[in-house]
Design brief:
binds 1-O-pyrophosphono-5-O-phosphono-alpha-D-ribofuranose, 8-stranded mixed sheet, Rossmann fold, 6-stranded mixed sheet, binds uracil, 470 residues, GTP-binding, single chain
Length: 470
């Protein structure tokens, strides 16, 4: 597919891209899916493209940051929208003000915010859009528009992107490019003189009168909304770009699987959970740290899993004598840990659910990478319970499927099983979801795959050895 590259809209399309890849079935911007078991909204926000906002002062290097991200994501479909495309055409009166260097181009009102929001919303919903083209010399919108196809990643770049609340609320990742004022002014003079036909005196006058005050009022303060602030003095920061693109790639991997399997839940990632994963996956992490962060991560996965249990409404009276309508936790639940690694998750479950019964299953991987059942000790009335199945690693899915068959033979209803795992390989997700479509899988990250030795990659190593070794 060949899409013309407008001056201020860039697209990168992989050869394999087809617009139907992005069709999102049955969702609206506000839709939240509910599980059949519980009443909690699921973590399925990634059914939409991954939306990134890149803000920062004038000439801070936003476009370069976006270009670097796009280069690094070259196997994904990325589109970039520039806020500059959405400048309003000036009226006759405004044109006179602009000619007299008395028009403010740096405030929110200078932009067609409704149109900008509308275009982002369409892309967000998997639709193509026609982006206006703005002529900086005539201060008006050109007749031609640029057609942009839907994408897996949408980057919205502009000075006020993090200031504009409606847009900000849609973003999955908010980036602020931080560059010293004097560097920005120097770049701005160079750009406006060479590319936009302005004179140096005029650029400095506009900067002092409008650009700097708008920066101080709107743009600088929007830094507080950023997930990541990139220092961009030297025009490069490959560490930040690497961090950002790895995060996006991970999200896109999850994106594909959660489109296919409605029962797969990936807990929302943030830079705390990414930090924990970085420590857990680092082969040089000490045993103490592995246990510490392993416990933290287990707790997060367990808490997330509990959110998918059924509940009943319950009203209570608060100490202020006021009624509070809430919910009551499910009864009739139990845990089952897969020996040995799954036992690492037992503490987290006990900390959340006092006195919960936890059964155990041991399977043994034979030389054909099949699993034999070696040991089981399960609550007698397990068939009446919802089961939280604990195993931190889902690899090929052999172990999980063997254990699930044991539970089903015991009379547990498939739809009442929540499989809690810390990392999951796509192969194991496919296997479990196909063989047991009613089982809910809750995981904190989805890995790239399994290698020829059936090891999850990039993986976390032998979880049991790292957690339990002395
Ligand atoms: O999906 P699969 O390919 O079956 O792999 C996943 C299994 O591998 C790990 O256990 P492991 O066999 O390392 O045993 P351990 O828990 O005793 O360390 C993990 O805890 C799972 O049980
Ligand atoms: O659903 C449940 C059950 C017990 N404890 C919780 O925190 N949640």
């Amino acid at each position: 597919m060949n899409i013309p590259m407008p001056a201020n809209v860039s697209t990168v399309l992989p050869n394999s891209y087809s617009s139907t890849d992005n069709v999102i079935e049955g969702t609206s911007p506000n839709s939240t899916r509910r599980t059949t078991q519980g009443g909690s909204p699921s973590f399925r926000q990634l059914r939409h493209p991954f939306l990134i906002g890149v803000a920062g002062g004038t000439a801070s290097g936003k476009t370069t940051v976006c270009d670097r991200i796009m280069q690094r994501l070259n196997d994904q479909c990325v589109v970039m929208l520039c806020q500059d495309s959405f400048y309003r055409s000036l009226t006759e009166t405004e044109l006179k003000l602009a000619a007299a260097k008395n028009y403010n181009f740096d405030i929110p009102e200078a932009f067609d915010q409704d149109l900008m929001m509308n275009c982002i919303d369409k892309l967000r919903n998997g639709l193509s859009v026609d982006i206006p083209t703005y002529d900086f010399t005539t201060h008006s919108r050109a007749a031609a528009t640029q057609h942009v196809e839907p994408a897996d990643v949408v980057i919205v770049e502009g000075i006020l992107v993090l200031h504009m609340e409606k847009i900000r609320n849609l973003l999955h990742m908010k980036i602020y490019v931080d560059t010293d004022d004097d560097v920005r002014l120097a770049r701005r003079i160079q750009r406006d003189v060479t590319e936009r036909g302005r004179d140096v005196g005029g650029v400095i006058e506009q900067y002092t009168k409008f650009v700097k005050p708008a920066f101080d009022q709107f743009i600088g303060p929007s830094r507080r909304y950023a997930d990541i602030i990139i220092p961009w003095q030297r025009g490069d920061n490959s560490v930040a770009i690497d961090l950002i693109t790895e995060h996006i790639k991970l999200k896109l991997q999850q994106h594909d699987l959660i489109r296919i399997y409605p029962k797969l839940q990936v807990i929302p990632s943030n830079f705390q959970t990414r930090g924990m994963h970085t420590i857990l996956r680092d082969r040089d992490t000490s045993k103490n740290d592995f246990v510490f962060y392993g416990n933290r991560m287990c707790r997060l996965v367990v808490e997330a899993g509990l959110g998918f249990l059924p509940f009943k409404e319950k009203s209570v009276i608060t100490p202020a004598g006021e009624p509070y309508t809430g919910v009551e936790f499910a009864r009739g639940i139990c845990g089952v840990s897969v020996i040995r690694s799954g036992e690492a998750m037992e503490n987290a479950l006990r900390e959340c659910c006092q006195g919960i019964k936890i059964g155990k299953i041991l399977v043994h991987r034979n030389e054909k990478n099949e699993n034999d059942l070696i040991y089981q000790k399960l609550p007698n009335d397990i068939s009446q319970r919802s089961v939280l199945l604990l195993d931190p690693v889902l690899g090929t899915g052999n172990t999980a499927c063997k254990v699930l068959r044991v539970l089903l033979e015991k009379g547990v209803q498939e739809s009442k099983i929540l499989f809690l795992t810390m990392i999951a390989a796509p192969e194991g997700v496919h296997r479990v979801c196909r063989e047991h479509p009613q089982v809910t899988i809750i995981t904190s990250e989805i890995d790239r795959g399994i290698n020829e030795d059936f090891v999850v990659v990039p993986g976390i190593g032998e979880f049991g050895d790292r957690f339990f070794s002395s």
